Amino acid sequence: MIYNIMKTFTDWLKESTAFTRSRLAAANGTGPSIPDAEINSHDTARPWVSKAIKKRNKCGVKKH
Predict the structure, then answer these.
(1) Which of 39, 37, 43, 42 lies closest to 52, judged by CA?
(2) CA dist 60 to 9, 30, 52, Å?
(3) 31 Ramachandran zone, left/alpha/beta (phi>0; psi -120 to 50)
(4) Do residues 33 and 53 touch, judged by C-beta distance below 8 A?
(5) pLDDT in tens, the chain (64 residues)
């Protein structure tokens, strides 16, 4: 058998880290929210992701 050990560039682009998957889940509302300070901590988030997380975090804050 011949095993394909080398990844192609497109396969490499599709891979994501655990933090990226967690951040996308938080933006989609399917996972726990993350603090605003951690939105861009691993890598720069997409604009819609950062807006969605900031909006989600703002909803829980009570105004005095």
Answers:
(1) 39
(2) 41, 16, 13
(3) beta
(4) yes
(5) 566 667 777 777 777 888 989 999 999 999 999 999 999 988 899 999 999 999 998 876 666 6
What pTM, to 2 d.p., does this model score? Answer: 0.69
Q: Which two tokens stand for residue 50?
A: 């950062």
- Three-state DSSP at 21 gives helix
CA dist 12 → 19, 48, 63 (Å): 16, 23, 45
Quickly tell me which residue has 């889940």 as its tokens.
Answer: 25
Rounded Cα–Cα distance for residues 38 and 18 (Å):
14
